[in-house]
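Run log, item B.
One chain of 378 residues. Sequence copied directly from the ordering sheet:
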Amino acid sequence: MRKFLLLLFALVALFAPRLAHAHGLVFTRVEAMFGTPGVVNITIDYDLSLILPQPAAYYALTQSSAETQQAAVKVALPLILEAMEFYAGDERLQLELQGFSLPALPETAFADPAQDKATVLRFTAKLPATPAPLVMVVPYGARVHHPVLFAAGSPAAGVLARSWVEEGPSEAFEWAGLVTNLPGGGTRAPSVPWYVDLWTYLRLGFKHIVPQGLDHMLFVLALFFLGLEWRKLIAQTTVFTIAHATTLFLSRYGVISLPGRYVEPLIAFSIACIALENIWRPKLGPARLALVFAFGLVHGLGFAGSLAEVEFPRDQFLMALLGFNLGVDFGQLCVIAVAFLAVGWFRNKPWFRTRVMIPCCAAIAAVGLFWTVQRLVS
């Protein structure tokens, strides 16, 4: 009993305080816009927690005076600009800070690794007299949330190109002709091969489960503890995948939607329900599969809410959804594989249910109920 209580306390203490809202899709955004001749406007969304010593310091900065904020950003600026370099041909552009906006978030959000908490920094840079393609370079080991979404274009000309960058240079953007503000002027950046973008979206989906999706990981673990027999496990995960894929596609096309303030508490509640059912009714049947399917629909809305943070070009829309969904599924399989390697060897022992499955499911349920209340009141 003492070991069970220690496990329960450890899991609640580790996971419960961290996720009031868990479905941000964390990556770095950079935007370069052309309009005024000789100048490019560059906006960088940068998470200062990559530089500041602890989350509390980031939150404290958001609550400090304007003078203190300006001084802190001035100190951080060289590190930010080391992480993303901009070139027009062989000439490196010199960025001049025009302004910034710190995130307006509750204190708990700054300790959550799955929460997007970027500071928006606005720069201008002079362009060379001789036009040369614009390229953003992310140096090896740069302090950024990978991948970096680089968008370049001209609102007046109706031109916009995007590329994802892990490390190294982005796709070159031909900006010559855009600064004249002629409708339809300029050229698009070279199209990125479809398999490159598919791999990027797959990684985003995987990242949304491991390591950012702690609530989704606990839900999959709850499925795992009933499904240690492969037949049970495959039945549950297949139903769950079909359900979340269905709502992911439908919600991204606007057929179905639900505000995050309802989706996130429901996701947390689903964790508790599945874990408690493992304890009270450890059988696989139609009722269990129906429950998994229903909660899978809810989780699909959570995935769609994350994916909505990325504005995809029309010709990449289906590919983005497919890649993200495959990444989510691969992340779930990895969670199951690790869990099986940890405790699956003992699944046939007579003491497995009382010493492993019930304590673990009770702890998962406790965390799920805590998150449900936390998300309802936050």
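Observations after the first pass:
- The chain has two domains: 2-22+212-377, 28-192.
- The longest strand covers residues 39-46.
Flagged for discussion on Thursday.
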